[in-house]
## 1
Amino acid sequence: SYVLTQPPSVSVAPGQTARITCGGNNIGGKSVAWYQQKPGQAPVLVIYYDSDRPSGIPERISASNSGNTATLTISRVEAGDEADYYCQVWVDTSDHVVFGGGTRLTVL
Amino acid sequence: EVQLVESGGGLIQPGGSLRLSCVASGFSVDSKYMSWVRQALGKGPEWVSFLYSGGASYYADSVKGRFTISRDNSKNTIYLQMSSLRAEDTAVYYCGSSPSQQHVMDWGQGTLVTVSS
């Protein structure tokens, strides 16, 4: 089965740039989505098709995907960005969806 | 505006059955990819099942043979029939919708299922 690997935590000071990685075998050949989840709330899609943003998601949030690593980048980090972030892909060979284990972003 | 409202969760004994419902508004459930995703307390999301607009359904290995996804177009509702429930099925169950199977665009607020004696 396909596995997505994320670092458990990332810490960044306000105003700095946070980068959260998602590793997977040839993930660059798949379409990656990213979700933000705050305590007690449902996940929110922040990136789909590797780098597209749904309406309402600020341009500070961007992403890339190549080789074996996808990366979510949050520029000019704010206190409100503190949350858990999950990457996700669809595995076409099995029509299954896989989520990464999640990364907790802490704003110092 | 897309809205998804789940219901049907509760406390159920191991081996029991439960049916979750997800009422959609703002679109037709047969026009999008509908999904169920669950999340155990303190854990990440786990995909459970997909129902494609064309009617095909897919399941995670952990629930295959025990869970069934379906829809009622007249009620604009999708269901998750769960049987032979186990303690490890305890989670918040979210309903999701999307124009693509490659991500979940919109999410409901979730319904809690607790499997315990």
## 2
Amino acid sequence: DAGVTQSPTHLIKTRGQQVTLRCSPKSGHDTVSWYQQALGQGPQFIFQYYEEEERQRGNFPDRFSGHQFPNYSSELNVNALLLGDSALYLCASSLPTGRSGNTIYFGEGSWLTVV
Amino acid sequence: EDQVTQSPEALRLQEGESSSLNCSYTVSGLRGLFWYRQDPGKGPEFLFTLYSAGEEKEKERLKATLTKKESFLHITAPKPEDSATYLCAVQAGGSYIPTFGRGTSLIVHP
């Protein structure tokens, strides 16, 4: 049973550049969420995609955008990178919302360093 | 605003020295409370989901319990391989998005 897979695992970008991160959900899951985790912090919710639409969004600027494809995989795009965007970006998948307390499963993350 | 607070921030134990981690929450309408383990540089690994006060779940040396205001993760006779950061998260009210605490960093010395 394939878990959540993310790519790339590590990348370095220059301030002002754009980055795209990719995620394939766990088999059988159709809802994908993205989180940002800074060192020493818990994951912070960016947004969630279901049926190819952004379903819910956290407190992140419009520089953060995403997409979900018909096969449920997803991309996270960040434009105009800032030094403060350096973090571990986590993708998580789950069954559709509407189920009480449905568990989310995380991938291994993509480490982004902005220099 | 929902709050999830984990304590202690860091915990050092000797191998075999049992202890507990705490996750306290102030939310309305708890839907689920989750525990994850996170190794350095890795994504969180799911451990347990608890839905209602009084519920308990066990896995190897770990046991999670839930009351109306907090959850405990009990670690019995820990081993060095149990060293990790343990994250707690809650889903509550009208949102199905879990809110995470900052985690407890556990180090178990041989």
## 3
Amino acid sequence: ELKVEQNPLFLSMQEGKNYTIYCNYSTTSDRLYWYRQDPGKSLESLFVLLSNGAVKQEGRLMASLDTKARLSTLHITAAVHDLSATYFCAVLEYGNKLVFGAGTILRVKS
Amino acid sequence: KAGVTQTPRYLIKTRGQQVTLSCSPISGHRSVSWYQQTPGQGLQFLFEYFSETQRNKGNFPGRFSGRQFSNSRSEMNVSTLELGDSALYLCASSLSLQGPNSPLHFGNGTRLTVT
């Protein structure tokens, strides 16, 4: 059974600082997704990572995938308040079934 | 292009009742998945439908069921509601069947409260 672990679960950051969220998964998969969720809202897709060594960047967020280590990272550069949200990684198990991590609550303080 | 539409947005039901939630996928999307989100268990997969057939099912009791219509719209039903069924139910649609190269697109969810 595929398990996905995210850490940290809660992250309080100062504006302007950098930090990384980690996502480990237990069995082979070559598709990993990052989603953002604002309070009371649905999930917004951030990145789809399809292969080993994949790196994608959008604004202050950069995601990477190492399928051999079964690890993905979401790096936040020079955080701003607007990035405050909950971030989920999700791994494709089979078909269109995603297994989600517990989520990382990010709070950016000014 | 319209996104994934879920109705209703909010529901309050009493224990023992049943409830039906509806999901209209993005036009052209034939795969519809359902997820339950709770503070304690996080996001959990319920089931997935493609071309009116259930392809995958998560680890939920038989009280949870679903179906998909020929226009790809989907419904999920929960019978004999329990307090623990209170959750945000999210529907997601996708173009492809065997592992999407594009992400699942999620609707805004239905917030179900069981009292």
## 4
Amino acid sequence: QSVLTQPPSVSGAPGQRVTISCTGSSSNIGTGYDVHWYQQLPGTAPKLLIYGNNNRPSGVPDRFSGSRSGTSASLAITGLQAEDEADYYCQSYDTSLSGLYVFGTGTKVTVL
Amino acid sequence: QVQLVESGGGVVQPGRSLRLSCAASGFTFSNFAMHWVRQAPGKGLEWVALIWYDGSKTYYADSVKGRFTISRDSSKYTVFLQMNTLRAEDTAVYYCARDEPSLSFFDYWGPGTLVTVSS
């Protein structure tokens, strides 16, 4: 079960900016653990999008950016493009008994 | 380039067992911890298990503890997931993922293998 909460869906027109929130607690993000983001295109495996709160792996466009504050984090997509339509998941480390690695509930981004 | 390829999925009856494999290539396997992550149909991602780079330690999600066992064979660049006493709720695509050790994230993923638990 997910312990990081994300909105089920966000949408925007091409070129617009959208943001996805990721809300955790004192046992994960609030402890200072980094937040990472994954993009999952339809029918494919997740792909690393942002690591260490705000770092992009090689090949990820700079339209994607991340931030973390307190017990939350967010992913921003600027200049939204049709190929950005996908599911997005945040992930962090957790010190509770239920599991070490926790994911967000996932957000579907729709390009209108 | 880093490649991870899972195999061993299929349809299995409740209570039975299944063993998944993940073949790795393109990196020094013995230097990295490895994970299994699953995704039930239409649902989100769930971390399942972790094995250290040298196999000395393993960790499990509460939902599979006592039923699943992760192991590795570094000579064959392969990580395994032995799944026993399978339940309908174990139905999912199972992904193998490489661990990035300094910040605790998954830097490479395989395409996944589907496990369906059904009578």
